[in-house]
Amino acid sequence: KKKKKDKTAIVESRGSNAIQSLINIMEMIDNNFDKDTANDLQKRIMLSIKNRDPEPFNRGIKKLRNK
Q1: Mapping DSSP to helix (H, G, I), strand (E, B) and coil, where does residue 67 land?
Q2: 6-15: pLDDT as tens digits
Q3: Which of 44, 41, 20, 21 is nearest to 32 (CA)?
C-alpha cells in the first residue's frame, strides 16, 4: 500500500507542477503575441500534449522565428 501511495504522491506533485508551468507559458503567450498567434500556439501546445509529440508546438515556434 505504501508504494502505491508514494507513486500517487509523485504523480500528483509532478502533474501539478507541469500544469502550473503550462498555465504560466500560456499566460506568457497571451501577453506577448497577438490573439491569432497566441491561439495558434496554445492549440499547438494542447495538440502536442494530446499526441505526446512536441513537434506541432516546435513547428509553430519555428514559423514565428522565420517571420
Answers
A1: coil
A2: 999 999 999 9
A3: 41
* Burial tier of 49 (Cβ tally within 10 Å: 0-12, 13-18, 19+): middle
Decide: 23 and 16 in contact? Cβ < 8 Å. no
Instruction: Return the CA Rg of the chain.
Output: 15
CA torsion sign, 9 to 15 to 17 to 23?
Answer: negative
d(C-alpha 11, C-alpha 18), whole Å: 10
List pLDDT tens digits, range 20-49: 999 999 999 999 999 999 999 999 999 999
